[in-house]
Amino acid sequence: DTLQYLMTSSQHTQDKFSILVPTYNERHNLPLICQLTVSALEKENINFEIVVIDDNSPDGTGDVAKNMQQIFGNERIVLLKRPSKLGLGSAYIAGLQKATGNF
Questions:
Q1: How far is Cα 5 from Cα 32, in angstroms, rounded to an integer?
Q2: Tens-digit pLDDT profile for residues 51-95
Q3: This prediction's pTM
Q4: What is the DSSP string of 5-53?
């Protein structure tokens, strides 16, 4: 279990974890994902960022991600807006390129 590892690892305070969240039409799900992730990891003093990779969602997911940045901060929520629906695989590649964590 990843969360268990994070909670018991003696090195987790030195590491930064990048959580990649590719999105397309996820405006209703994104706030819950962000809230649960931030709550769980901050409680354990884990250094992390959530990288939201949005493929120009027509439902306004990008705007919701911007709101999440205002709530949780730009250092916690990193938004990568892409010009169109470019696919899941390339979203992960773009997210890894944007990520600043070492995990």
A1: 23
A2: 999 999 999 999 999 999 999 999 999 999 999 998 999 999 999
A3: 0.85
A4: HHHH-TTTTT--EEEEEEESS-TTTHHHHHHHHHHHHHHTT--EEEEEE
